[in-house]
Design goal:
Elements: E1 5-6, H1 27-40, E2 45-47, E3 57-61, H2 73-81, E4 83-105, E5 108-126, E6 132-138, H3 139-152, H4 163-178, E7 187-188
Parallel strand pairs: 1-7
Antiparallel strand pairs: 2-3, 3-4, 4-5, 5-6
C-alpha cells in the first residue's frame, strides 16, 4: 500500500527513532508498504519517520543510479542490486574525503542542493529477518545510507547546508510545510 510521505515541518522528522524488535507490529507489512511508497515516489531511500513513524528503520534501492554512464560497469552492477532494509542501524565510522553531491528528499520535494559527506562508512544493522550485518560502503551507496540514517537521527539534508543557503531556501521550505507545493505523490502536511 502506498502511504503518504510526511512533509518538511512535521515534528516527526525531528525525532530520534526508537529501536524496534522482531515483534514490532506488522513489520513485514510496514516494510512492504515503505517499498511501495518509495517506488511510487521514485525515491532511492525512505526512512520510517518519513511515513510518520519515529522508529529506527529505513530502506534503500539505488538501482536508479545504475543507469549513470559515468560509473564503471562494476559500480553500475553494484548499485543495480543494492536494495536493503536497515533496522536499528548504527554507523560505526565514516572515512575518506568529503565530496559534494546534489541531494534531494521525498519530504522536501523540488529542492536539490549539494551536500558534503564522507566517501566511505561502516554500518551495523539488522535486516528484515533480524539477521545482524556489518558492512563497508562507499560512493553513492554510502551517500544514500548516510542520508537515510540521518532521518532516523532527526536530521534533514537541509541541516547540512550553509546558513546563507538555508536563508535562500526559507520561503520554499515554508511553502512545503504549508502544503503549497505540486508533487505527483501523496504527502501529509503538518497540521496548522
Amino acid at each position: 500500500m502506498v502511504l503518504p510521505i510526511v512533509a518538511y515541518g512535521d515534528p516527526v522528522l525531528r525525532k530520534i527513532g526508537e529501536e524496534i524488535d522482531k515483534d514490532y507490529p506488522n513489520l513485514s507489512e510496514l516494510i512492504q508498504n515503505m517499498k511501495d511508497t518509495m517506488k511510487n515516489a521514485r525515491g532511492v531511500g525512505l526512512a520510517a519517520p518519513q511515513i510518520g513513524k519515529a522508529i529506527r528503520l529505513f530502506i534503500v534501492d539505488t538501482s536508479p543510479f545504475s543507469e549513470d554512464d559515468e560509473l564503471s560497469i562494476e559500480e553500475q552492477n553494484f548499485l543495480k542490486n543494492f536494495k536493503k532494509v536497515f533496522i536499528n542501524a548504527k554507523i560505526i565510522s565514516e572515512e575518506g574525503n568529503e565530496w559534494a553531491f546534489a541531494e534531494g528528499c521525498l519530504s522536501i520535494p523540488n529542492i536539490n542542493e549539494d551536500v558534503f559527506r564522507n566517501e566511505r562508512l561502516t554500518i551495523e544493522y539488522f535486516d528484515e529477518n533480524f539477521k545482524k550485518h556489518t558492512e563497508n560502503l562507499d560512493g553513492l551507496a554510502a551517500r544514500v545510507v548516510q542520508h537515510e540514517y540521518d532521518h532516523i537521527e532527526g536530521i534533514l539534508f537541509t541541516d547540512k547546508l550553509s546558513s546563507l543557503k538555508k536563508r535562500l531556501l526559507k520561503k520554499k521550505l515554508n511553502n512545503i510545510s504549508k502544503g503549497n507545493i505540486d508533487v505527483d505523490y501523496r504527502m501529509r502536511f503538518p497540521k496548522k
